[in-house]
């Protein structure tokens, strides 16, 4: 018996993203896509039946291939990054804020028909990572921030398993404190992966070493920047009290679906 902890944001984005309509090319040969009167991209249409079928297929595929007997699935709600914006106003501000065209439909269906839990006032990543406390559970995700945490996880996009030790998780976190993360979290200017590896070579007590690197680069301001980046990158761990939903493998029940 095993429980899949699913980061549904990437699943829902995959389903709800539409195909853009190319109307021309610019002088460099790059495609120009159709937009509406408000400047928003226009997409080829998808029917409700197609969206529902995609939701069902992807959920069954993830759960079947990972051999899960139950699951807990989380999806983005409201005010998810407010906490981190208090410390880092630039956090995720480089992201496209336009939601996929069928996001609301897909999200509602996954909540109503698959029991997905809407996450408000914190990020889905944090609740997924916190849910590793559920006995006999594993994470299903494609986000490197989640897959880089301790444990054995399933990457549904690549159909692969990855095992990360606590030492590897810790080293990755402090490396990103130096190099910066992909959520518009700045590290130490001018220090990339190679220099970070040199700084952290043979280190066992990371915080003072990395803090010293910040101070060496920025002086006393480095202390504030260190704190800002730490609060941006560090997962928020909370107590989780949810009941996993049972999943019956459709193959075992002789239900015909395509698994590709």
Number of domains: 2
The CATH architecture category of the largest domain equals: 3-Layer(aba) Sandwich
Mean pLDDT: 90
> How much of the polypeptide forms β-strand, as a percent range?
5-15%
General shape:
globular
State the secondary-structure class.
Answer: alpha/beta
Q: Examine the coordinates and then state which fold CATH places here, giving the name of the CATH topology of the largest domain.
A: Rossmann fold
CATH structural class of the largest domain: Alpha Beta
CATH superfamily of the largest domain: 5'-nuclease
End-to-end span in angstroms? 24 Å
- Give a quick account of the main beta sheet: strands, pairing sense, barrel closure: 7 strands, mixed
N to C succession of SSEs:
EHEEHEHHEHEHEEHHHHE
Low-confidence stretches: 252-260
**What fraction, in percent, of the residue positions are helical?**
40-55%
Q: Tell me the number of strands.
A: 9
Number of helices: 10
Q: Tell me the Rg in angstroms.
A: 21 Å
